[in-house]
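User: Sequence recovery, please. Input:
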């Protein structure tokens, strides 16, 4: 089940935007995390194991 982000997390700056001029942001996560933290991953990361979103 995908856990909804709290208001404070939704309003926080997106990491991939904050650091866009410096480097790409990625994450190594297990399949369970892909499901449970989908919104968080989509908000903050701009890379996955297959490349740029």
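Assistant: Recovered sequence (53 residues):
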């Amino acid at each position: 089940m995908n856990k909804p982000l709290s208001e404070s997390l939704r309003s926080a700056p997106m990491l991939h935007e904050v650091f866009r001029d410096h480097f790409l942001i990625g994450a190594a996560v297990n399949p369970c995390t892909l499901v449970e933290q989908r919104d968080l991953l989509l908000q903050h990361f701009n890379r996955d194991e297959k490349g740029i979103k």
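The chain has a mean pLDDT of 77.
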